[in-house]
Design goal:
Strand content: 15-25%
CATH class of the largest domain: Alpha Beta
CATH architecture of the largest domain: Alpha-Beta Barrel
Helix content: 25-40%
Number of helices: 12
Oligomer: single chain
Radius of gyration: 21 Å
Largest sheet: 9 strands, mixed
Distance between the termini: 14 Å
Number of strands: 19
Shape: globular
CATH topology of the largest domain: TIM Barrel
Amino acid sequence: MSKILIRGAKVLGGEPQDVLIDGETISEVGTGLSAEGAQVIEADGKILLPGLVDLHTHLREPGREDSETVLTGTRAAASGGYTAVFAMANTFPVADTAGVVEQVWRLGKEHGYCDVQPIGAVTVGLEGKQLAELGAMHDSAAGVTVFSDDGKCVDDAVIMRRALEYVKAFGGVVAQHAQEPRLTEGAQMNEGIVSAELGLGGWPAVAEESVIARDVLLAEHVGSRVHICHLSTAGSVEIVRWAKSRGIDVTAEVTPHHLLLTDELVRSYNPVYKVNPPLRTERDVLALREALVDGTIDIVATDHAPHPHEDKDCEWAAAAMGMVGLETALSVVQQTMVETGLLDWAGVAERMSFKPARIGGLAGHGRPVAPGEPANLTLLDSAYRGVVDPAGFASRSRNTPYEGRELPGRVTHTFLRGRATVIDGNLT
C-alpha cells in the first residue's frame, strides 16, 4: 500500500500521535487520523524518531567483501534504525578517485537498504603524501562533501592544511582520525594502569589530543571546517570545547562503545575489545557523556568496523582493531544517555539524525517528523530488554563487544522514503 498509518507513536518521545505516510512523504501528523486506505501499524507508545544517520561506517566494499558488503552493511544499518550512512574510504582500491566513490554510490543505489554517501580519501592511497582528487570526487555523481583517511591520521601538517584549504572552496569538511603515529608505535591498548599491569604497549591520550589541538588551529588559520572522528579522551573534550569557544568551525563525534566500555575489559585479553582508538578509562567515559550533553561533542557515530572471524579469533597482538556497531548503537545510547537522564529522545534525534545529516550536507535526511517531509523514520520499542546475540546480526561480521550483554530497546520498523525496510524487527 502507498499509505501507512503509524498509530499512537511518541514522536521524539512526546505525547502519542498518529503519523500518516503517503508515498515517500509524511502527509499528516496528529491524533485520531483516518486509517482509510492505509496499512495500520499500532505503535502503542513506541518512540518514533527521524531515520538515523551514521557519519562513520566501514562497508568494506570494494575489496574486503569477506568482512562486509554494501548490501550486508546497509541491511545492518536498517536493522539498527539507520536510513543513511557515510561510507569510509579505506577500501581496496581506496576511494581516492571519482571512479571508486561513484562505484560505492551506485552499489548503494542498486543494493542499499539505506542511502549510502561515500566519503572520499584525503590523500592518495591513504598514504598521507599527496592530496587525492578532492574536487573530482565532489563533482562526481556521488557528490562527496566529507573527506577522511580514517584508519590513518593525516599527520603531515602541510598536507592537512592544503586539504582544509581545498575543501573550503565547496563547503566540504575534513574528518580527521586523530592519532599521532610515532606516539602509538606498537600500541595495543590505552596507556595507563591497566596497560602497565598487563604488559601491553600503551596508547597515550596525548597521541589523540596533540593532533586535535594542531588541527583546530589549522582550521582557524584557514577558515575551514574540521570534524574529529571517534573522540575518546577527556583531554580531547577540553581542546574541542576551547576551540568552539573561540568560534573555530570544529565538530566532533563519539562512538557508542566509548560511551559505555572501559579499558578494564582488556584484562580478559578478548580481542573483541581491541579497537582504534582504544577503550579508555571510566573518567574518560563520563567526560564524553557530559560533552555529548553540552554540545562539545556534536554527534554519535558508530565507526562500524566489521572483520572476518579469523581476524578477531586470535591472540590479542595479532587481532585486527574494530567493532561492529550499527545494530546496537541506539540501544547503547538509550542505556548510557537516556536511561541515565542525560538526554531525552529529542536530544537523541539531534545527535543521531539531525546534526550528522547537517555536518555531512545530506539532503532529505535528519528532517523533522512533520507533514511534507521525507518519510525516513525509525520506530523503537524502548521498553524492550534483550541479550545481544550476534548470530542474528544482518552484518556479515560478528565482532561485537556486547555479545551476551543485556541492552535496552529494539528497532521494530524502519522506513526509507516511505518504504519499510524493517517490519516487526525483521528485514523486508
